[in-house]
């Protein structure tokens, strides 16, 4: 899961795709430990990790939804990511990025 916080966007995407492929074979571990950690990391100070966590959650949700009905508690936790975790005040944390609008747009689209 550490690659979800990599500085290179392509590595974060590949890490998410890896979670998609790993999810069907280890649903219990994904539901029990990976998803809670990813939800927690969407609150962290590291912008790359926040975005990577959203990518990872999206890929896991996609993998789980094709095989089973998702638990309502999981759905509600993930649905809260945008209103709770992606707040306009987080734009202030983007200092140092050359194209803040593009990076923020990517974060929202990924969710």
TrEMBL record:
InterPro entries tied to this protein: ARM-like, ARM-type_fold
Domain of life: Eukaryota
The name this protein goes by in its record: Uncharacterized protein
